[in-house]
Amino acid sequence: MIFPSAISGIWLLPGHSVTQGQGMGVVVATAAETEIGKISGFIEKTPNFSTPLLQKLEVFGKQLSLIIVSVSLFTFLWGIAQDYDPVFIFLVAVGLAVAAIPESLPAAITITLAIGVKKMADRNAIIRNLPSVETLGSTTLICTDKTGTLTKNQMTVTSVYAGGKSYRVTGTGYEPSGSFFSGEREVDPLSDETLALLLEAGALCNDSAMREDGYGIEGDPTEGALLVSALKAGTRLDLPRLDVIPFEPENQYMATLHRLNDHENIIYVKGSPERILSFSKRSEGRDSLDSEEITGVADEMTTQALRVLAVSYKKVDSEKNRITPDDMRDLVFLGLVGMIDPPRDEVIDAIKTCKRAGIRVIMITGDHEKTALAIAEKVGIETQGALTGSKLDEIEDSELEAILTDISVFARTSPEHKLKIVQHLQKRGEVVAVTGDGINDAPALRTADIGIAMGITGTEVSREAADMILADDNFASIVAAVEEGRDVYGKISKIILWTLPTNGGEGLSMMAALLLGLTLPLLPLHILWINTVTAIGLGTTLIAEPKERGLLNRPPRPASEPLLQPLIKKLVILVSVLMVTGALTLFLINLEDEGVDVARTITINTIVLFEIFYLLNSKSIDEHVFKRLLRNKFMLLGVTIVVLLQMLITYHPMMNTIFHTAPLEPAKWPVIILVASSVFFIIELAKEARKRNNLKNF
To answer: Which residues contact 399 (CB under 8 A, 6 or more apart)?
Structure first.
C-alpha cells in the first residue's frame, strides 16, 4: 500500500505488499525509525501494568509469610526458653509452619483461572494473559468502538442527497437489489446525472468488491455499502484506476484517479462532509457552493444515526497519472450519502446489564458526533453531549479530568485520542477495559487494564498487544466475560475463605497445646495427612462451584480492596478459634481415659469434619447455602472420598501403625459430628445476622 505523505514524494510503509508492477525507491528508514517501528517502540515504552489480582496476591503472600514465620519463630524461642528439647521444639515449629502454610492455594488459584479462561472462550472471549481473567471482574469502565462492536458492521445506504434533492434507497445488507425514491415516487437513478455521477464516484473511489456469489462483500463495510448502492442503480464501473490516496483516519478522505477518455482523467474523492466541503469550490450544476445547506442536510442525516460521507470530483488532463494531497482543491461537490449501521440486537441488553453491574460504557469512534450521539441514544449509553477529537486536543489535562465525568461519547477521534482518554481515566482510579482493532490502537490496548482486540477485523499488532480477543467482535461478549471474571474472583475468595482458617486451626491447635504445656494433639505426620487429604479432596472442589446468581447486579469491587477483606479476616479468626476449641476439648476429654493414640485419632477426625462442614459454609460468602448443598457434584464426591480415607486411617491396622492412630468406638462419632458441625450453624447464623442488620462485616 502506497500513501502520499504531507511532504513531497510517495512513501511505501513496512508491513504492506506490492501486488504488481515495477518501481524504484530509496530506503529512508529501517527498524525502529519506520512508522511500524515507532509504534513498536511506543508499545515497549508503555508500562506493562500488573493486574489487580497479581498485586493483591503479592501483598497477601508477603503478609501471610511474615505471620507464619513470626509465629513459628516465636514458638521455637518460647520452647527453648521453657527447656524443651531443641530437636523436639524445632520439629513442632516446623509442623506448625507446615500446618499454617496453604500449600494448595497457588494450584487452586491457577486452576480456577484456567477454567475461567475456558469458560470465557466458550463465550467468544479469548484470554491471552491468565491473571486478566480476574481483572475483568473488577472492571469499572469499558471504552468501546462503535462500528462492528456496538453495531452490526453491515452498512446499508438508505439516503442520498444530490443536486439539491433527497432520495430514499430501499434494500438491506449487501444484496444488490433495491429501489430509489424521491418522496413517495420511485425514480430511475440514472435519469439524474448528478445522482448517477455520485453513485459512480462512490463505487469507484472504493477498494471493496462483491463476492463471487453476488451476495456479500469483500472489504470495508462502508465501501461495500457504496458499491452495492451503485449496483442497485446500474451505474457503470469500468473506468480504469490510475492512482489512489488511501483513507487515513487523520486525513478523513480517500481519492482515486481514473482514465475517463482520451482527453481527460477524473479524480473522485469521498470522506467526511466537513473535509470534502473544505476541498470543494462549487456544487455540480451550480456556480457556487452552499455549505450551510449541505451541512444542514448532513446534520439531519446524522441525527437519524446515519454515517454520512460526502463525494466530490474534478476532471484533469489525460497526461496526469498521479495524484497528491495538493490536488485536493477546487473540487466539484456531488452530494451526500447516508448509511445505517444498526446496533446489534444484544447490545442494548448488554449495556443495561453494565448499568446494573456498576460499569460505565464510553463510546470512542471516528464517526460524526451526531451519528455517535444517535447510536449512543439507541443503545442506552448515557452522556451529556459528545466531544470531538479536535476539541479534545484543545482541552487542558486538568479540564479533561472533569469532562470525563459527564461525557461518554467521543467522536472524530484518532488512536492517539483513545490513548489519552484511557490514561486520564486510569488517573481517576478506574479499572479500564478498552477495545481496538488497528495498529495504532496498540499503545492504548497495552496501557489499559484490559486491552480487548477484535478477532475478525483486528490487526495482528492489536491482537498481540491485547489481553483479550473477541472472537465475534461483539460488545455483548465483553459483558459475558466480565460476569465470568467476577465468578473467578468469587471462587478465589471462597478458596481463601476456606483454606486460611482450616490451616490456621491446625497450627493453633499445636501452638495452644504447647503454650499450655499439654501433650501435642497432633503429630507432624498427622498434619501432613490432613493437609494432603483435605486440600485435594475438599479445597479444590470449590473451583467447580456453580456460578452465584446476581453477579452482574453488584457494583465492581474497589481496585484498592485487599484480597483479605475485613470479613474474611474475622471469619479466619472465628473458625480457627472454633476448631481449636472443639478439637482440644475432645482431645483432653479422651486423653486420660482412652490414651494418646485414641485422643489423637479423635482430634484428626474432628478437624477433618470441621473442614467438611465449613466447606459447605464456603459455598457462598454472603448467602445461605441450604438450597445449594447438593448442587456441586464434585464437592459431594470429594467429601465422600475424604470420609472413606478417614475411615481407612482410623480402622485399618497398617494405617494405625504408620500414623499412630487407633480404632474408635461407634459411640465416639456422634460427639465428634456434633462438635464439628457447630461451625456450620454458627457461620450460617452469622450470615443471617449480617443480612438482617445490613452489615458487610460482623
So the answer is: none
CA distance 683 to 578: 11
State how far the Cα of 535 lies from the Cα of 540, in Å rounded to an integer.
7
- pLDDT confidence band for 255 (50 / 70 / 90): very high
Handedness of CA 523, 526, 532, 537 (dihedral sign): negative
Both 462 and 334 in one domain: the answer is: no
Determine how β-strand 209-210 pairs with β-strand 280-283. unpaired
- Amino acid letter, residue 539: G
| Separation CA 583–CA 594 (nearest Å) | 15
Given a cut of 60, is residue 20 above it in pLDDT? Answer: no
Read off the CATH number of the domain in which 604 is found: 1.20.1110.10
Residue 132 lies in a domain: no
Q: What is the pLDDT of residue 1?
A: 34
CA nearest neighbour of 481 among 146, 132, 153: 132
281 and 423 share one domain? no
Helix (H) or strand (E) holding 567: helix 566-594
DSSP structure string for 257-277: EEE-SSSEEEEEEEE-HHHHH
- Residue 154, phi then psi, degrees to nearest 5: -125, 85
pLDDT tens digits along 155-165: 899 999 999 99
Asked, for residue 129, whether it belongs to a domain, the answer is no
Q: Is 145 a catalytic residue?
A: yes
Number of domains in the chain: 4
What is the per-residue pLDDT for 7? 40
Query: Average pLDDT for residues 117-137, to the nearest whole number?
Result: 86
Task: In whole angstroms, give the CA distance from residue 527 to residue 173.
Answer: 68
Which letter, b or e, does each residue of 649-676 get, where b requires 16 or more Cβ atoms within 10 Å of its Cβ?
bbeeeebbeebebbebeeebeeebeebb
SS3 168: strand
Q: Give a yes or no: residue 316 inside a domain.
A: yes
- Cell readout for 411 is 467522536
Give alpha helix (H) positions in 321-469: 345-356, 369-379, 389-394, 397-406, 415-427, 442-447, 460-465
For residue 271, what is its C-alpha cell? 470522506
pLDDT at 170 over 50: yes
Per-residue pLDDT band at 513 (split at 50, 70, 90): confident
Mean pLDDT rounded to a whole number for the chain:
87
Q: How far apart are CA 471 and CA 124, in angstroms?
A: 5
Cα(340)–Cα(462) distance, rounded to whole angstroms?
27
Residue ranges making up the domain that contains 627: 60-123+482-692
Tell me how many degrees the CA angle 404-406-412 measures, rounded to the nearest 5.
Answer: 65
State the catalytic residue, choosing from 145, 192, 243, 367: 145
SS3 320: coil
Q: Centre a 10 Å sphere on the Cβ of residue 557 and count the other Cβ atoms it contains.
A: 19
Q: Is the pLDDT of residue 697 over 70?
A: no
pLDDT tens, position by position, 400-411: 888 899 999 999
pLDDT in tens, 75-119: 888 888 888 888 878 877 887 787 777 877 888 888 888 898 999
The pLDDT value given to residue 5 = 39
